[in-house]
Amino acid sequence: MDYPHKLAPADAPILDAFRERWSPLAFSAEPVEEEKIVTLFEAARWAPSSYNEQPWRYVYATKEDGPARERLESLLLPGNAWARNAFFLAVSFARKTFTHNGKENHHALHDTGAASAYLAAQCPSLGLIAHQMAGFKVDEANALLGLSAEFIPGSMIAIGYPGDPKELDPKLLEREHAPRERKPQKEFAFRGKMQ
């Protein structure tokens, strides 16, 4: 299936990668080639981070990974059951402290979000889609996926090839076809001080 274009109606010129990135719900179970998985994590690797700490970690599994995949699927909340169709699932984590001095890294989740945004922005060029979600069992993620309390879960990400939206239930289909909306810049960008 072709990449489902739902271009952002941007008010100013932005990169095509940002206009094309969105969060579909209809995924195909078609296998994603290993080289594409490597490319996605390479994109994440080059995200900026405070002190170049690169606090992000990803635990992922494909439909070919048996028990590892089952562990990831068990973290999904019922409202995100659609994500089971995606060929691979990942959970992002952020290391809470700096390695160079042991101090708290207040920017860890911000930086991990940037890495995940780079990963998601890479998807359209590969014919892939990604959907980041908060709807997972955050409190169980560390123990289930083998991370210490030094790491905080960020988001769960479904990644794969586009599926057929007609296979979604009616409420999800409505979300899939809804127009993309964002707050106007005047609501989040303030010159000098917040109004």
TrEMBL record:
InterPro entries: Nitroreductase, Nitroreductase-like. Transmembrane segments: none annotated. The keyword Oxidoreductase applies. Residues 19-65 form the Nitroreductase domain. GO terms for molecular function: oxidoreductase activity. Residues 168-195 are annotated as: Disordered. The keyword Oxidoreductase applies. Keywords: Oxidoreductase. Gene3D superfamilies: NADH Oxidase. Belongs to the nitroreductase family. PANTHER family: NAD(P)H NITROREDUCTASE YDGI-RELATED, NADH DEHYDROGENASE_NAD(P)H NITROREDUCTASE XCC3605-RELATED. This is Nitroreductase. It comes from Candidatus Peribacter riflensis. The lineage of its organism: Bacteria, Candidatus Peregrinibacteriota, Candidatus Peribacteria, Candidatus Peribacterales, Candidatus Peribacteraceae.
